[in-house]
Amino acid sequence: MIPKLHPDARTSALVTSFVYHLSEHGFEGDIELTAGSRTVFATDNSIYQLEPSAILFPRSSDDLQKIAVTLLDPNYCNLPITPRGGGTGTNGQSLTSGVVVDCSRHMNRILEIDPVRRMARVEAGVVKDQLNRTLKPLGLFFAPELSTSNRATIGGMVATDACGQGSCLYGKTSNHVLGLRVVLTDGSDWWSRPLDKTSLKEVMNRRDRIGEIHRTVEAIAREHHKRIAEVFPKLNRYMTGYDLAHIHRDDGRFDLNAILCGSEGTLAMIAEVELNLLPVPKYSALVNIRYSDFNAGLEDARALTALNVASVETIDEKVLGLARKDIVWAGIAHFFPQDDRVPVNGINIVELLGNDESELENKLAAVETALKAGEDVGRLGYTIARGHAEVEAIWTMRKRAVGLLGNVEGPVRPVAFVEDTAVPPENLASYIREFRVLLDKAGVAYGMFGHVDAGVLHVRPALDLSREDHEPMVRQISDAVVSLTRKYGGVLWGEHGKGVRSEYVPEFFGDLYPCLQNIKRAFDPDNRLNPGKIATPPDGAMPLLKIDKVELRGRTDRIIGNEIRAAFDNAAYCNGNGACFDFDATSPMCPSFKATGDRRYSPKGRAMLMREWLRLLSEKGIDPREMARHLRRSTPLAGLPARIFNSLNPLNRDDFSHQVREAMDTCLACKACAGQCPVKVSVPAFRSKFLELYYSRYLRPLKDPLVAAIETTLPLMLHVRPLYNFVAGTAPGRRLMRVAGLTALPVLPKKSLRAETKHLGIEAADPRMLAKLPAAERKRIVVVVPDAFTTIFDPDVVLSAIRVVQKMGLSPRLAARHVNGKAMHVHGYLGKFQSTAATTASYLQRLADTGVTLVGIDPSMTLAFRSEYKDVDGVSLKACVLMPQEWLADNLDRLEPALENVTATPLKLLPHCTERTNAPSSTAQWTSIFNALGHDLYIENTGCCGMAGTFGHEARNRATSEKLYAMSWADPVKRGKAKSIVMATGYSCRSQVGKIDNLNLPHPLQVIDQLLC
Question: Pfam families recorded for this chain (predicted)?
Answer without folding.
Answer: FAD-oxidase_C, FAD_binding_4, Fer4_8
